[in-house]
Amino acid sequence: MKITQNLPELPYDKSALNPFITEETFDYHYGKHHAAYVNNLAGLVKDTKLIAASVEEIIQIGFAEKNHALFNNAAQHWNHTFFWHCMSPDGGKQPDGKIGELITRDFGSFENFKEQFSTTAVKLFGCGWAWLAQDEHGKLEIIAMKDAHTPLTENKKPILTIDVWEHAYYIDYRNARPKFVEGFWEIVNWEFANQNLK
């Protein structure tokens, strides 16, 4: 998936994931939070050599140079764009294709994976993301990452993610993060997960 420095179109209508995510949440989460990261990033790279860089390159540069503003805004833009594609109005159900095979291989069963991923997402303290990633040997793993952090800086391939920053769910669920995580399984985009595998 190519991610540019611009705010992307959502891959579905703002009402398409209702009631899991309402239009009001998209107005704030996508229309304000995600847009702010894009606008901040644009200001940071303006009149620099990074204006022509990919978002992935900016993430790596910001991380390596400990430029927190650059890293956080580029990574949050990338993470959010990726997250929108991890959901689909036609999603949910059991994973099929290669992702289904690898989940069974690496977690024993889909039920084991679902429980481990949900627990990771619910228990992550404060703000962050729960990721399903693939390491350099092709093995799947679940990673809890704080703030804007992403598997990209650990040489791992992102496969799926859920955003557990409070702004992702507070309008629809208040402080009930477990209910938000539970609903994710009804719309998870396994086709996208399959496309991300090495």
TrEMBL record:
Pfam families: Sod_Fe_C, Sod_Fe_N. GO terms for molecular function: superoxide dismutase activity. Residues 6-88 form the Manganese/iron superoxide dismutase N-terminal domain. Its EC number is 1.15.1.1. It catalyses: 2 superoxide + 2 H(+) = H2O2 + O2. SUPFAM superfamilies: Fe,Mn superoxide dismutase (SOD), C-terminal domain (SSF54719), Fe,Mn superoxide dismutase (SOD), N-terminal domain (SSF46609). Keywords: Metal-binding, Oxidoreductase. PROSITE patterns: SOD_MN. Residues 95-196 form the Manganese/iron superoxide dismutase C-terminal domain. Destroys radicals which are normally produced within the cells and which are toxic to biological systems. Belongs to the iron/manganese superoxide dismutase family. This is Superoxide dismutase.
